[in-house]
Write a structure and sequence with these properties.
Layout: H1 3-23, H2 26-29, H3 32-40, H4 44-56, H5 64-76, H6 80-92, H7 100-112, H8 118-127, H9 131-147
């Protein structure tokens, strides 16, 4: 996958994730007043939906930073959709520098939780990484899982 094509792919994937939630009636039915208390109490699904609202400006003023913060909280709790989005953000370098190691880590975590789009994106990231970077990403997945008291779900790329 060439870089210019890959860099155009991530916004479409992120939009698809938000669109799926919207099609299910989740985004339109939720309001800031009903989601924020749940999100603040640690509800990962509410955090993810709040992130989508801020990112898209749906029912609130668009705020990419606020959206990314809420998405990160949901990802840290193991929500596959949020982990996938975190991987896309690190892959594209939106709001922070490109970090392929962290992109691979988040995508690997999402893939281990059966996110349907994570594997191909993770493989495309792996193709751009050195062996040392890939080893570091896999180490981070293991550390992340151990911190939560889970078995490691580090996923090997299919294509190298």
């Amino acid at each position: 996958m060439n870089r210019s094509r890959g860099s155009r792919l991530w916004p479409a994937l992120l939009l698809l994730t938000v669109s799926v939630a919207a099609a299910a009636g989740e985004v339109e039915a939720d309001t800031l007043a009903s989601l924020r208390p749940l999100a603040e109490q640690g509800d990962a699904r509410a955090q993810y939906r709040l992130a989508g609202m801020y990112s898209a400006g749906n029912g609130v003023a668009a705020d990419a930073v606020e959206g990314l913060l809420w998405n990160g909280r949901a990802a840290q709790q193991g929500l596959a959709e949020a982990q996938f989005d975190q991987g896309l953000h690190y892959r594209a370098g939106r709001l922070f520098p490109v970090d392929l190691v962290r992109a691979y880590m988040w995508l690997s975590l999402a893939e281990a939780r059966d996110h349907p789009l994570a594997r191909p994106v993770m493989n495309s990231v792996a193709q751009r990484m050195s062996e040392d970077e890939l080893a570091e990403a896999q180490r981070l997945v293991t550390v992340w899982e151990q911190t939560l008291g889970l078995e490691s779900t580090c996923v090997e790329p299919r294509v190298r």
